[in-house]
Amino acid sequence: MVFNRRTVRRHRARAAGLLADAGGHDFLFRESAERLCDRLDDVTRTFPLALDLGCHSGQVAQALGGRGGIETLVQCDLAPEMAFAVPGGPVLAADEEAQPFAETAFDLILSNLSLHWVNDLPGALVQARRALKPDGLFLASTLGGDTLQELRQALAEAEIAEDGGLSPRVSPMTEVRNLGGLMQRAGFALPVVDSETVTVMYGDPMALMADLRAMGESNAVLESRKGLMKRATMAAAAQRYRDLFAKDDGKIPATFQILTMTGWTPDASQQQPLKPGSAETRLADALKDDFRDGD
Question: How much is the pTM?
Answer without folding.
Answer: 0.87
